[in-house]
Amino acid sequence: MRADHDIVEQNLDGQEAEDARALLASIVESSDDAIIGTCLDGTIVSWNRGAEVLFGYTSQEIVGRNAAVLPVPDRRSEVGIIIGAIQQGRNVAPFDSMCVRKDGGTIDVSICVSPIRNAAGEMVGTAAIIRDISQRLRNERNLRETEDRFRIMADGCPAMMWVTNGEGRLEFINRAYREFFGANFEQLAGLNWQVLVHPDDAVEYFEACDRSVREQAPLRSETRLRRADGEWRWVSTYAEPRFSPDGKFLGHVGLCPDITERKQVEQALRSSEEKFRQFAENIREVFWMATPAAGGEILYVSPAYEQVWGRTCQSLYENPKSWMEAIHPDDLERAEGVLARQIQGDPIKSEYRIGTPDGQEKWICDRAFPIRDEAGQLLRVVGIAEEITEQKRYEAELILSRECADVANQAKSRFLANMSHEIRTPMNGVIGMIELLLETGLTAEQRRYATVASGSGRTLLALIDDILDLSKIESRKITLENLSFDARAIIEDVVQLLRVQASEKGLLLHARVSPEIPPLLRGDAHRLRQVLTNLCANAVKFTEHGEVRLDVTLDEPATVRFSVTDTGIGIPPDRVADIFSPFVQADASTTRKYGGTGLGLAICKQFVAMMGGSIRVDSREGHGSTFSFTAVFEPAVPGQQLHASQQGLLVARRGMLRTARPARILVAEDHVVNREVVLALLRKLGFEATAVPNGAEAVQAVEHGAYDLVLMDCEMPVMDGYEATRRIRASLHPGTPVIALTANAMASDRDRCMRAGMDDYLAKPVDLRRLADALDKWLPARQQAQSLAEHPHGPVPTF
Asked: Which of 118, 349, 644, 788 has the most beta carbons within 10 angstroms of its beta carbon?
């Protein structure tokens, strides 16, 4: 701005000059900027209203004072410099400064100074226009702070970030951008971008960039860029256009995250899906995938569906329930129940029949399992359906074969039971009579013959027992007892039983029991004795010189190890693996020295397995063998009733000698010889008994006389022992103990006796020791019952 009053007055007449001055004064006075006039020495001569507002001084307060009072103290020298420059005819460019208000506050200002000349063109003063620029500076500072925050944020972003102008040229790039390309802004701004974009992506990428600039639209693309190390990396570009407040297009701001790993995963997924599709479409099973909802959408079904169901895959996509329409009516309800569980996300396996359009009936095995997200939400259900028609047919044939085998096995068991009965009946007479004969006065020669006959009979009986045991094991009809027993007594009994035979051969037979073995164990003492007897008898049989030793040790708190060691002939290495098989012997030749059926070790192996253990053999041909096995027993509580076999041992150790008792015993036996044997055995034990030939007479005898005990044969004419027992239980003497005497030795026979109401069971041939045990067990109970009946208020006192 120039102020030159003299020139104005020179060109105008008096009135016009006055009007011009008035107009100029009005303009100066109405300006929002501060307009100040000074002399060349800096004295203020004019002060408009804008100056009053800006500085707070009125015209009266400031006119006449030097303008040096307006700048802040450290910038007051600027006034003299400006006046000096104007006096020398030099121009003063507009500049920014800082002034002080009347109240002491400071303000940022922009100052423009012009000279004032008189009519002669001489400079007589200055005119300064001062404008408040505080708001502008604050805006500039805010902008710089905003830009700084944006730059910090952008440099902290792991993805490349950039800003372009309206022509698409770079204006800003962040640290990730610079590091990716290994260059600064100036270098990147001058680069030929085509060399940084993969050739296969360049055309499409640059067309997308040009289009976004022309259309001032967002930019979306995925492309490969060459990193500073030369590696091509996939990046995704997200750019949005930016506009000024008045709507002018300013360019784009964009983000380019590295998506190489995602692309690799997608590629691996596509490869996996392709492999899966190839697999699913080339297997005979039907693979399917569906949404988890009733009647949900079928997402995928493999082509095998068309071969199995006989319907097109497209028909299933169009009607997801069509697969169920093919299910056999008898299986439909069950299949619907399975489907309901499947929709809830349960893994299921189901089998059902379907009918194909050409009339075939097929069996299907369908397995389905859920697919869930990380939160456990059910996403879909997938499954594999397999045709199992041939398998079902094979299973039916197996079931039929098994049923036939069961029938054959039952027939074999019945045959063995019948044969056992038929053989045991005469054997009872043979062995019983020989035992009685041995109790008479015989010559030495007669006793030797009788002893041999007795031993042969018992050998034959052992053979029958082995065959029955093997049959019962094969038909799974053997169960182990679980009673307390004294293991040391069992071992002593086995050794005593075989010591005579060992002594005859000059062998030393002895046992060593570890002190760690508990006094009482709980298990099946009878089967344990059977295994030990078999192993020890074999050791004695196959040993000619030396010794047989039985060692018993504790492996674990409940596991006992039994080892039978001999110095016998040993076993050839090629026969060791076979000796535990039925009917197999180490020496199977017709010239073998040692006899046997080959059943004993096979039965021992089965019994040991049932007792929770295992059996093995260590042998050297010509140097002996060691058979060892383990058995698991439960701990026994002291004071529990001993195993019945050991109660019998106690009876035997008392010598089986009893004085005559006031006990009435009835024997029901149809076989004359067996009847005589039983009566003789009872007399041997000190009892007199009455005998009847059938069950009907036994019932009559019990009804007409108070018997303390009945020994009842099971197979008799007129009335068998089972029916007779049932009638005794319904008679006036239902509590009379009834003990079965039968040649039927199967476990099922014992159960049948118990169901008929019998109290105990003795298999023929009747063993004197077991008979004594049974009488000792049941007669006291009978006598006690009689005593209580005679003295209901307690025992009669004696003096």
From this structure: 644
Q: Are residues 395 and 380 in the same domain?
A: no
Is 650 contained in some domain? Answer: no
Instruction: Give 195-203's long-range contacts (Cβ < 8 A, gap of 24+).
Output: 195/226, 196/225, 196/226, 197/223, 197/224, 197/225, 197/226, 198/223, 198/224, 198/225, 198/226, 198/232, 200/224
Q: What is the CATH number of the domain that holds 794?
A: 3.40.50.2300
Cβ within 8 Å of residue 368, ≥6 positions away: 342, 347, 348, 349, 381, 382, 383
Q: pLDDT per residue over 236-256, tens digit each? A: 999 999 998 899 999 999 999
- CATH number for 252: 3.30.450.20
467 in any annotated domain: no
Residue 7's pLDDT band (boundaries 50, 70, 90)? very low
Question: DSSP string spanning 341-359?
Answer: HHHTT--EEEEEEEE-TTS
- Crossing angle of the two packed helices 444-474 and 389-438, in degrees rounded to 10: 160
* Residue 459 lies inside a defined structural domain of this protein: no
In this structure, is the dihedral angle defined by the CA atoms of residues 692, 698, 700 and 705, taken in order, positive or negative?
positive
Write phi, then psi, for 601 (nearest 5 degrees): -70, -35
Of the residues 81, 113, 132, the one at which a domain ends: 132
Mean pLDDT is lowest, of 26-35, 367-376, 384-393, 601-610, for: 26-35
Q: How confident is the model at residue 63 (pLDDT cuts 50, 70, 90)?
A: very high
How many C-beta atoms lie closer than 10 Å to residue 193's C-beta?
13
Answer yes or no: is pLDDT of 649 > 60: no
* Number of domains making up the chain: 5
As given in the structure block, the two tokens for residue 764 are 């023929």
Does 678 reside within a domain?
yes
What's the pTM? 0.39
User: In the numeric block, which tokens belong to residue 619?
Assistant: 């042998």
Could you tell me which of 743, 787, 744, 775 has the C-alpha nearest to residue 666? 775
Cβ within 8 Å of residue 572, ≥6 positions away: 586, 621
**What tokens were used for 750?**
């014992």
Q: What is the pLDDT of residues 132-148, one digit of tens each?
A: 988 888 888 887 887 78
**128 and 150 assigned to the same domain:** no
| Distances from the Cα of 767 to the Cα of 55, 80, 685, 771, angstroms | 140, 149, 12, 6
630 plus 489 within the same structural domain:
yes
The residues near 656 (Cβ < 8 Å, ≥ 6 apart) are 684, 685, 768, 769, 772
pLDDT of residue 217: 93
Q: Are residues 238 and 380 in the same domain?
A: no
> Which residues span the domain enclosing 325?
281-387
Residues 493 and 638 in one domain: yes
Q: How confident is the model at residue 512 (pLDDT cuts 50, 70, 90)?
A: very high
Cα-based distances in Å from 720 to 416, 668, 693 = 20, 10, 10
Q: How far apart are CA 229 and CA 221, in angstroms?
A: 23
Q: Domain boundary at 109, 132, 155, which?
A: 132
Exposed/middle/buried for residue 225 (C-beta within 10 Å: 0-12, 13-18, 19+):
buried
Is residue 82 helix, strand or coil?
helix
610 and 531, same structural domain? Answer: yes
The alpha carbon torsion through 549, 555, 561, 563 (nearest 10 deg) reads -30
Q: What is the spatial distance between Cα 356 and Cα 307, in angstroms, rounded to a whole number?
A: 10
Residues 107 and 143 in one domain: no
DSSP 641: P
pLDDT at 305 over 90: no
Mean residue pLDDT of the chain comes to 81
How many CA atoms are closer than 13 Å to the CA of 154, on its beta-carbon side?
A: 20
Q: Are residues 608 and 742 in the same domain?
A: no
The answer to whether the Cα torsion of 44, 45, 50, 53 is positive or negative is: positive
How far apart CA 746 and CA 418 sit, in angstroms, is 10
